[in-house]
Amino acid sequence: MIGWATAAPAVSAAFLGSFVEVVEAFTIVLAVGTVRGWRPALVGTAAGLVLLAVIVLALGPVLDRMPLQALQFVIGVLLLLFGLRWLRKAMLRSAGVIPLHDETAAYTVEAAALSPDPGRAGEHLDWIAALVAFKAIVLEGLEVVFIVIAVGAGRGLLVPAGLGALAACCLVLAVGLCVHKPLSRVPENNLKYGVGVMLSAFGVFWTGEGLGVDWPGHDLAVPLFAAAFLLVGVATTRLVHPAGARRAAP
Predict the structure, then answer these.
(1) Within the chain, what is the greatest distance between any pair of CA atoms?
(2) Domain ranges, residue 102
(3) CA distance 240 to 243
(4) Is 184 buried (19+), middle (13-18) or exposed (0-12) by CB count in 10 A?
(5) What pTM did the predictor assign?
(6) CA nearest 149: which of 7, 2, 10, 45?
(7) 156: left (phi over 0), alpha (psi -120 to 50) or beta
(8) Where are its TM segments located (predicted)?
(9) pLDDT (tens digit per residue) in 123-166
(10) What does the DSSP 8-state code read for residue 66?
């Protein structure tokens, strides 16, 4: 039986991580639809979703054939590296070392790149626009797929993690359709901070499981690892730039 202590962090990590990626993909697709029309935007989006579905269907049998401990170890290492990358960037942004990600600025850049140019044919530009939407869906979608597999594989949590990711997609789509503009007010860096903490915690947990470590408290070790990463992250951020850390604490 799946314990709440394991299911809750898995669903939360999948939801928050997917939310960040879907917001970024939505911003690009919105720029394509607004500037070049919704036909190329929807064509590129549909093609990207089809490719993601094929990838997921292809990965399923491969994961089923892998020994459980080997799967946990591989996913744990990848998840730890992935989570630490997110956490590092979030810490640097919180400390003011690198600028915060701005969805409005990203939208402006994409819209400018897709604006009609008298020297280019409109039909050719529509194909480029569809390709831009396709690339956004595939690249951001692959990260969503990885997050779901990483936090869900090996412990029967693929369905809860998948539902968390689906909920994030539906929420971004619903809000985006209502406001019809980039979701620039989403505290993206804070979300990435939290996701980096949770993914890193799962990474340590799964890596240990793959190596045969019997964690004290078993599933309860996950939130303890997350708390440890959060404390270290906040402390490190304050050491790098105390004023920046107070202004953008997660």
Answers:
(1) 66
(2) 4-247
(3) 9
(4) middle
(5) 0.64
(6) 10
(7) left
(8) 12-35, 42-63, 69-87, 127-151, 157-179, 191-208, 220-240
(9) 556 788 788 888 888 888 888 888 787 777 656 677 777 788 88
(10) S
DSSP 8-state code for residue 181: S
At 222, list the tokens: 């996950």
Show the tokens assigned to 112.
Answer: 């400018």
Percentages (nearest 5) of helix, strand, coil residues in the chain:
80, 0, 20
On the CB side of 28, CA atoms within 13 Å amount to 20
At 12-69, the pLDDT tens digits run: 777 877 887 888 788 888 878 877 777 888 888 899 888 888 887 777 667 667 777 7
* Cα–Cα distance list, 37 to 31, 241, 250 (Å): 9, 44, 37
Amino acid 132 reads V
CA atoms within 13 A on the CB side of 62: 6
- Considering its fold, how many domains does the chain have in total? 1
